Amino acid sequence: MFSFFKRKPKEEPAPTPQSVAAPASESIIPVTETVSATPFTAEVATQPAPASAPTADTVPAPAEQKRSWLSRLKAGLAKTSSNLTTLFVGARIDDDLYDELEAALLTSDAGVEATLFLLDALKKKVKEEKLTEAEQVKTALKALLLELLTPLQKPLELGRHQPMVMMISGVNGAGKTTTIGKLAKHMQVHGQSVLLAAGDTFRAAAREQLTIWGERNDITVISQESGDPAAVAFDAVASARAKGTDVVMVDTAGRLPTQLHLMEELKKIKRVIAKGMDGAPQEILLIIDGNTGQNALAQVKAFDDALQLTGLVITKLDGTAKGGVLAAIAKNRPVPVYFIGIGEQIEDLQPFNAQEFVDALFN
């Protein structure tokens, strides 16, 4: 598997007390651990064998895997790409072309601000560089979009904290729980021990789904049938500190940003995690369905205002005509995009690379 994370030297873990007291100001309900026992045999040997050592006969070579990913990425963004690139076929450089390009960008959900920014910069570039061919204008637009998206590209750093606590949020249907399972698997491949916290205590299906991912990856899952989601998160952090686990991933209940009482619950979970470990959660991720277009930007704004997001994962980009939403995010709320997903398989979730993304849009 090609490089997925940025590594940092691990800090020495803080001394862990024999017991962790629940904070008096928050309601904490004891929970129990559900330890999985069924190994997942796809890519990594079952623990305690090193999870980072897949064999050559079961894992494609890096170059082959890279070509496969780029091919799937291009296929996934084909609808968005078609709306943009067909405009330049035999086109004249005039106001009609700019009008059609504006419509195409808006249709791809690039948003008004990003669309106007790109068009203004493009017109200036065409004038200054005296571009006369449609293909030259297409190349210029590609360069401008790359410049806009590059600040979103950032690796998820492993090994800076022990444990690294990740709080995962998102609306129902965004692919949150599935994404947690994929990330957990990739982290194992990179030698990280993982613990999952089933903080969506309101939906039995969510707990069951996370438990299945735990069983597949031979990962401990902290869960309870009902009660306070913050209690699950607190207990998971305490368990990880006691056992020296590398990464804790806390699933949270899906909710709309307009559900203010539920957003307050997310803030509570964040506070309780911080009481369980100073500086945690170090990563607060929002999972976004790439097909929701401008609604995705609204979600980023609302969750960022409430939680101060550190990163995004954009899923379901396969077959979407709304791939321009990354431009809208870059222009309006440039939270780093750690990963993008284009399918159901584990290898269909990969780190966001601005150059690869733009190349796929203009293939």
Question: What does this protein look like?
Answer:
With 363 residues, this protein is α/β, with parallel strands linked by helices. It has one domain (29-48, 61-363): Rossmann fold (3-Layer(aba) Sandwich), CATH 3.40.50. It is built from 12 helices and 11 strands. A 9-stranded mixed beta sheet has the order 2-6-5-7-4-8-9-10-11, sandwiched between helices. It is elongated. The relative contact order is 0.19. Belongs to the GTP-binding SRP family. FtsY subfamily. InterPro entries: AAA+_ATPase, P-loop_NTPase, Signal_recog_particl_SRP54_hlx, SR_rcpt_FtsY, SRP/SRP_N, SRP54_GTPase_dom, SRP54_N_sf. Its main location: membrane. Keywords: Cell membrane, Cytoplasm, GTP-binding, Hydrolase, Membrane, Nucleotide-binding, Receptor.
Return the string of H and E elements. EEHHHHHEEHEHEHEHEHEHEEH
Q: What is the number of helices?
A: 12
What sort of overall outline do the alpha carbons produce when their principal axes are compared? elongated
Instruction: Please bin the fraction of helical residues.
Output: 40-55%
* Strand segment count: 11
Major β-sheet strand ordering: 2-6-5-7-4-8-9-10-11
- The multimeric state of the shown protein is single chain
Q: Please indicate the percent range of residues in DSSP E strands (runs of 2 or more).
A: 5-15%
Q: Helix/strand-derived class?
A: alpha/beta
The poorly predicted ranges are 10-59
Summed up, the domain count is: 1
Radius of gyration: 22 Å
Which CATH class?
Alpha Beta
The largest β sheet comes out as: 9 strands, mixed
Instruction: Identify the CATH architecture.
Output: 3-Layer(aba) Sandwich
Mean pLDDT across every amino acid position: 83
